[in-house]
Write the structure tokens for this entry.
Amino acid sequence: MSESNKKHISIDPITRLEGHGKIDIFLNDDGDVENCYVLIPELRGFEQFCVGRPVEEMPRITTRLCGVCPEAHHMASAKACDAVYHVEPPSAGRKLRELLYNVFFSGDHALHFYALGGPDFVVGPDAPAAERNILGVIGKVGVEIGKKVIQHRAHHSAIMELLGGKKIHQVTSIPGGVSKGLTEEERKGVEARIVEMVEFGKFTIKVFDDIVLKNKAYVDLITSDAYSMKIHSMGLVDEKNRVNFYEGKVRVVDCDGKEFVKYSPKEYLDNIAEHVEPWSYLKFPFLKKIGWKGFTEGNESSIYWATPLSRLNAADGMATPLAQAEYEKMYATLGGKPVHATLATHWARVIELLYAAERALELIRDPEITSPNFRTIPKEIPTEGVGIVEAPRGTLTHHYVTDERGILTKVNLIVGTTNNYAPIAMSVKKAAKGLIKKGVNVSDGILNKIEMAFRAYDPCFGCATHTLPGEMPLVVKIHDASGEVIQEIKR
Amino acid sequence: MPSNQKQILLLGIGNDILGDDAVGLVAARTLRTEFQGTIDVVEAAMGGLQLMELLEGYHKVLILDAIYTTEHPLGTILELSIDDFKCTVAIAPHFVSLPESIQLAEELGIPFPEEIRILAMEIEDPYELREGLSPSVEQALPAMISRARMIVQRMLTV
């Protein structure tokens, strides 16, 4: 191979192809990025696997989709079952579900910030790979902060087990409500934990402020063109258009922040369609009313994102006071709404972490939370239903169709990360184009900065709940103009 | 939830709708009655930091799991220790690896097992949605259970 053809950069520590993330970067003759393709695996065939099963099993089965956010599937599924059975949970049942859900959100977002997204900023994007993990974060911020993170996780796990029946793969949300309530003694114990979770939320905001926002280089990185993405934003909102993770309507705003559409769960098929590309077995959701216009940005594009940042963009505010103050600060700092800086997703995430803890505190102090009236027994003939919640990684939709016995005949799921397939691919391509140029040595740091575009979305592979020996299946390959792989990096 | 006052944990890890990925769960379930009252037996579908929370406070732990390396015949049972793994950069929170979790526990002063052994069975396909084990894994299961029994008995006596 001639020197001029040596444009191969291969990032491939993993040889398996099935069920793994792949990034392929293609260079042109000038050594600049020509194109970039991102393949995110999903657990294929899950919808088919569920056909023929009783629909009321779904809140338990669908938790197996994901070891990171089983609560999200559990909740979307329960809500879909409510709709299938035409039953409305009583107020206490809804509040118990929402309480569990916000505790989950607080814990999940904390885990992402300190173990995944945070390392890029706390340790630095150019730090050696071996340091860009939770150990590196604790090495930088100190053991005491590490203990706070673990304590937050412990609160989260204990409450999940109490409210959800199990620490992981919850079982208590069922058609019509929940299967168990809270005694006053249990309520007091949970309240004490959530008070600490609110403090942890405030603490995390401060960590982000001290380590990220006061570092000009990081702020420049966040606002750089390489990490901008101007597309529609999606998120679930309440009746006052404030962020709500558990219920409401799906609101989409355009690149200028103007409402494009707001729909109820049962209207999702009128608003979202899926596009197929020959180079991927994955489908790309897009806004049906605009129609597929390709991987483009702007108001004419039908591509949208569903992330913590898009949720804040799509809403008019947060429903709790501390989070609202941080929401206003973020938009004031970044030049108003909506924000199109992909890396600002991390900022939105820590604001959501605080909101979730505040909302959980409101709910645990609600007098109705210990009511014994937490379930309405379904009595109608089951037919069809859609349940939508916000998963940490995006808007999650479960759609079930059953026969008159409640046996599933059709299942359709749009998981959080699925919404973001197109913007993830576009973000990675944009970052690659901005960072890989002729004459630039493609170092581990450069490739990590490309991955940062990917990591901001907190994509959930959702295939397995664990791995041995603990390696993350991601393959990044860089191809020269003839398509030959010239460099591979594996994780 | 089992009491941490017992010193030994037998932990089966897996996803029960991913076919052979459930082999660790099945093996642990089979041994539960045999060791009732002497050790804690837990079936779990978790990883990363949640695994760390589960292991906290135990003196010795035996983990039963599936493994997919393509380097061994199906049904091969590998006995591993933590030293056989290395830390990695995780792209998702649930991929905070076991070695990272152990190192984290050490740095934070969290009481962690002094001995962690892992029995992992080589399986063919960890991604197929299926309930139940394949015939080749079913055939190899008694050997895994037998080895697990021996390890637990050794842990109880030493």
About this structure: Residues 91-122 of chain A form the longest helix (32 residues). Chain A touches chain B through 56 residues (CB under 8 Å). Chain A has three domains: 3-41+420-490, 88-228+341-377, 229-340. Confidence is low (pLDDT under 50) at residues 1-19, 462-472 of chain A.
